[in-house]
Amino acid sequence: MVNRKELDPDKSPSARFGQRLRRLRDERGWTQEELAERMGCSGTHISAVETGRRSPTPRFAANADRVFGTGDQLQRQAQAVRYTALLEGFPAYVTHEARAAEVRLYEVGVIPGLLQTPEYAAALEADAVRREAITPEQAEERVGLVAQRQATLVRSPSPLIIAVLDEGCIRRPMGDPTIMDAQFERLLKFAEQPNTVLQVAPFSMGARRPFSLPVIVLTMPDRSLMSYAESAQRGHLERESTFVLPILTAYHQLQAEAMSQAASVAMISQLRKGTP
Q: Is residue 224 part of a domain?
């Protein structure tokens, strides 16, 4: 124990995973070698993960969940380690989004990821790279996740997806005109699907707009609800219905005040033609 390295969970997602792995091991009174034997790896590997020197692979996390009997908790935490370019809390949200029966989202400023074309997503992240907010590798990671999220929603039965976009989302240019033209086409095709609703919340709503930041409400297959919202620093996934229900009520109010899908499609079509 004299040489036991102190862990700083705030240092990185890898460090947080390592601290949790050590805590679970300590609670059972196992040495690193004993845990390694149960997981089919080496004690050196366990040490490297615990101290944050090696990131947990999906297979490692799955084995750890099996050994500790923690369901998929460590696998979800390991996913957060892999998605280093994402806000804390978002990787956990994505796992629930992939299983949701209904997805209600409201976005401000940019087209939401579930509706983005690859070119739009790449242009968005290229600007973040230009501002040195993220690295080129992290930009590639984010664009890849957009495609992954969209792919999980192509399933049977199809989830209901309701998207309300602030008018600024469709009026803000991203990349060159060809990128925006393709993005507008993507939105119009989205609106044609039988399991989707697309509405624009016009600027004229003014103070009647109930949300000032993006928000998502998920209805899971068992009809339980959860919401997801972001600040500049982190994302927050809320599972307590006492707090989610008021958000759902506000979302219904948003839909009532927003333009109908027909009017929203007409506005997007006009913008695509280059008319105000």
A: yes
How high is the mean pLDDT of the chain?
Answer: 89
> In one letter, which amino acid is 79?
Q
| 29 CB burial (10 A radius; 0-12, 13-18, 19+) | exposed
Q: Can you point out the beta strands (E) in the chain?
A: 102-107, 160-166, 196-201, 215-219, 225-230, 235-238
How many domains does the chain divide into? Answer: 2
In terms of domains, do 171 and 258 share one?
yes
Residue 231 scores a pLDDT above 50? yes
Distance between CA atoms of residues 202 and 125, nearest Å? 26
pLDDT at 1 over 50: no
Rounded to whole angstroms, the Cα distance separating 196 from 110 reads: 19
On whether both 167 and 224 belong to a single domain, the answer is: yes
Strands 102-107, 235-238: pairing is: unpaired
CATH number at residue 36: 1.10.260.40
pLDDT at residue 53, rounded to an integer: 77
